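ok posting inputs for the magnesium ion job
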Amino acid sequence: MKQLTHYLVGGAVRDALLGLPVHEKDWVVVGHTAEEMLTLGFTPVGKDFPVFLHPKTKDEYALARTERKAGHGYHGFEIHAHPSVSLEEDLLRRDLTINAMARTPGGALVDPYGGLEDLKARILRHVSPAFAEDPLRVLRVARFAARFHWLGFRVAPETVALMRSLSTATELLSIAPERLWQETQKALTEPDPQVYFQVLEDCGALRILFPELAALRGVPQPKLYHPEIDTLEHQYLALKIAAQLNADTPTRFAVLVHDLGKGLTPESAWPQHINHEIKGLPLIKQLGKRLRVPRQYLELGLTMSQWHTHVHRALELRPNTIHKLFKGTDALRRPERFEQLLVACTADARGRTGYEERPYPQADYLRLALAAAQNIDIPALRERFEGPELGAAIGQARIHKLKEFKQAWPDKLP
Ligand code: ATP
Ligand code: MG
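and the output
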């Protein structure tokens, strides 16, 4: 058996050059057949193209391949994996120049498309015009922009232009909903998730993929509370703060959708947005259904839209209304989800120009209020009441605790 000719490729080469930790190693194998790989003990995993797992390291080894467009949109690729395909040909089919570098087993860099130069200049640039053959790449570029924004990376103008030409309904709507959600969910985990949506907006993809969000561009809010005025700008700022707060992904999603209702306000009512909390709910459900958003995300998004104004007003709310908030958000049974809501509301309050550092006492106030409302003697009430009366008595006991709590709270409002 001849020696396996293989090269380290993709993210591992890129991330090492950036000085970032390498999480997974992908390899390309040149000059070999699938049969040889099996003989060497590799396990096949590829459904659409020949990829194998290394018997020991479990790293992914793909046979060098070229791809040719043979249909519309995201589908219809002709995969050509053959021992005659060279490393350079394999790198040519890749999306970005910084992702199209390889290392030889001896450690030498193979960089036929200027990846290192672009990496140093912090540019996300497509490798070849074949980029336009796969609309999923529009999402990938936006996601890499969100990931590497903090390092100063920008999308090359000619790549934005190519992404714009790809941003038609026919192309973008051919992406499977699961893939769209997968990319979006990953983008939400990045250090600057707002950049994903900003890049999609810049190339015209946002209005096709996320029309509910795109509708917020140009919608004004009252300057007193929102110095940034524009509602989509507010969404981006809030999402950025959510990432800075290390919010988990469902919480970031909830921030993303919390003001969708503002897109439905008639112009005559601007800049007020009465009832946007409720008007947004069908829009969130619609987006959730279209992208097959998991239930955990969707529920938090809906809860955030419906209740965020209550949370912001926490210190002014009567004990009865706080109790209503706890019931409506299911806070008593699901305190961990209520905590996510408080983080999302903190991001919303601070995601406003000039308010990024503002204190948000509402969150601690409600944390302590929830603890107070939970601190009742249910077994004692059970001895005295049953059925609906028990439920009412528990509610009364909680509201009583909330009254005591409110009276004891030092007024910390600025
Ligand atoms: P990470 O795994 O850290 O998210 P990565 O660069 O390794 O980043 P993968 O999705 O693992 O990204 O893909 C591995 C490599 O395959 C990429 O670096 C890129 O060269 C190539 N690649 C993946 N998907 C595409 C695509 N849709 N079009 C072109 N090239 C792609
Ligand atoms: Mg990878």
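notes: The chain has a mean pLDDT of 93. The pocket of adenosine-5'-triphosphate (ligand 1) is lined by residues 10-11, 24, 26, 94-95, 99-100, 134, 136-137, 140 (CB under 6 Å).
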